[in-house]
Amino acid sequence: MGHKSIIEHDYLIFGLCDVTPIVEQTIIGTRLSSFTIKSRREVDFRTVGFYIPKFRNKEGIEHKNISEITEKYKEHMQYLFDSYGEIVDLGISVEDARFILPYSYHSNIIMGLDGRQLEKMIISLTKGNLSKIQELKEFGEKLEEIAKVYVPYLTPGLEKTEENLDSGFEYLEEMTKRPEIKIINEPKLISYTPNCDDVIIKSYIMYHYQCSEEEAEKILKDLEKQDKEVKDKLMQIILHKDERRELEQTSFTFQIPISLSILTHLTRHRMHSLLVPEFLPMWNMKNFIIPDTIKANSKALEIYEKAVKKNIEVYEEFKDEIYEQDLIYFYLGAQMLNVTTTMNSRTLQWISRMRCCNKAQWQIRQIAWGMVNEVKKVAPLLGKGLGPTCMTDKYCGEGKESCGLIEKILARD
Asked: Helix, strand or coil for residue 362?
């Protein structure tokens, strides 16, 4: 028929067993799909297992010394898992110890998506640039195998699609030299809707009265003559409405430094446009983070730094003769990267409510507060509604797990 909206009404749910974060971070970029992933904050990873590539040489052909290379890889991965266990046994939380884990570890995911998104995913994983990563291609082929049984109407379209292995960056790579990767220090506001507070408030007036922007401007000025605090009051009303569409009329673009361990805390928020660097070419392996709890424990710090150093050494040894796509499992959770994202004010409010909370993981909490503080500089009225609910709404949803800040706030007020 020339369009495929009809297959968006067919919905499929998959159980993904023993996939790595490589698969997770790739598929979670399918923004119109849904994912449920067990929280890793209370999980001991010592026995979850890890992925073993079928190692290829620089030409992408099975390496002649694959048995020897595979054994060295398995030995090294087990060493990293053992180091993780030693750090946990020293009293470091599994939440912080997992920064030393390689991106080869296994995980289980529930994935739900419609027929159209499934078709796009299969094509991307089996015939696009991502198919160069063998785990992703294996996963795509498994999805296609299942699709032929349960949604056979997809088969003709999948078979017609031609392979396209271009990355989309070929021209850029030809024209300029790749700069050194430098991780920024904190979230940075790159661009935003000018006069954000006024845009939100005028949108509120235009929405209610169906008037022009010029008329809304006039109404707002008249209101200010009656009450100097009218903007503040209107913003508070908007921030606490059930439907906050006015907040969606403004947006902010950030560049954010984040570790691979915590990246899912950001990617799982669906309603923002996140640009996560591709796994290839390989990033600077020396850009890594050390949790403060590990820095404070001399024995744990020694194990951690030794493991990071050893991982870089083995990676460098493999790098000279192994297909680059097979090296991505040497990334550690501690690996730092810069991501870029754009979100509207409503999404920003939602993220800040969850991630500024004292119960949130420490790195994503620092990131969330960094974003909020940047926005407060350019949209102070909106900024009053950003942060954990104990501060913005005098309410805590953590129940018995509350950090106790809500009681202090209520007592002070």
From this structure: helix
Which pTM was predicted? 0.93
State the pLDDT confidence band at 413, using cuts at 50, 70 and 90: confident
Query: Residue range 121-133: average pLDDT?
Result: 96
- Whether 345 and 251 have beta carbons less than 8 Å apart is answered as yes
Quote the CA–CA distance of 253 and 34 in Å, as a whole number.
Answer: 24
**Identity of the amino acid at 121:** M
**Do 334 and 368 contact (CB within 8 A), yes or no?**
no
Average pLDDT (329-344) is 97
Q: Does a cis peptide bond (omega within 30 degrees of 0) precede residue 187?
A: no
Residue 1 has pLDDT above 70, yes or no: no
pLDDT tens for 360-393 read: 999 999 999 999 999 999 999 999 999 999 999 9
Helix (H, G, I), strand (E, B) or coil at 256: strand
State the number of CA atoms in the 13 A half-sphere of 160 facing the CB: 6
Amino acid at 278: E
Question: Closest by alpha carbon to 69, among 51, 54, 59?
Answer: 54
Q: How far is CA 87 from CA 73, 98, 141, 291, in A?
A: 21, 9, 38, 12
Cα–Cα dist 51/135, whole Å: 8
The C-alpha atoms of residue 157 and residue 308 are separated, in whole angstroms, by: 45
Domains of the chain: 5-167+297-333 (3.30.1360.170), 191-256+339-412 (no CATH)
CA distance 24 to 136: 10
